[in-house]
Amino acid sequence: MNITWDANDYEQGFSFVHEYGSAVLDLIDAKPGAWVVDLGCGTGALTAELARRGFEVTGIDASPDMIESARRDHPGLRFEQADALTFTLDRPADVVFSNAVFHWIEGERQDELLANIAANLVEGGQLVCEFGGNGCAAQVHAALADAFARHGLTYRHPHYFPTIGEYAPRMEAAGLRVTFATLFDRPTPQEGADGMANWIRMFLKKPFEGVDDELAQRIVDEAVEAVRPSLWQDGRWIVDYVRIRLRAQKVAA
């Protein structure tokens, strides 16, 4: 995963990530008592909601900071630090659930991700996930690419945002039969007058690696002003999110 998280900053300013994720839980078609693994659980908010719905739960995240926060906030639940590409379970799960994680994993490693998930599911088990879809934050990324170019730099897009047509075959190749898929716009409000700049600093760190702080600030300022006419709406910043939401079932080999 190509980002290092600060759990406190994430929870303080960007709780919308797990708040929007609550709707994805409704796609889980399993009875109470089923074992659900929350892959990329972050600070554990959705893991706790899964537990409230009657599931046996385990939260997994690659970030030690996130796992520490999750264990502190939800001491009665089980959390493990592990990578989505290589995690292993002591027994296969009934459901792997994941919100806002897959787009952080490089496109060339998505097949590896899906194969590992399938290997950790029971036959007939489900993968339920949502992540950034094709066109997500396109205006913000375009503005940053233009700003980088004006300063003689190349903008390295840090995310993988597929279409359904691109992603469903990858799931099927991993032995996961797609039973539900949708791609939809989800304009997402940000907090405060600096909401857009704060969003860029939180979620788009990798493109700024090696850029000195003064120049990085100038690029952020230029990108924010470039998107102001379209994304500053009714006194607040809106990021032009697009999401892809999927459910798949592991089929017999």
Automatic annotation (TrEMBL):
It comes from Collinsella ihumii. SUPFAM superfamilies: S-adenosyl-L-methionine-dependent methyltransferases. The keyword Ligase does not apply. This is Methyltransferase domain-containing protein. Residues 36-125 form the Methyltransferase domain. Keywords: Methyltransferase, Transferase. PANTHER family: TRANS-ACONITATE 2-METHYLTRANSFERASE, TRANS-ACONITATE 2-METHYLTRANSFERASE-RELATED. GO terms for biological process: methylation. The keyword Transferase applies. Gene3D superfamilies: Vaccinia Virus protein VP39. One of its GO terms (molecular function) is methyltransferase activity. InterPro entries: Methyltransf_25 (IPR041698), SAM-dependent_MTases_sf (IPR029063).
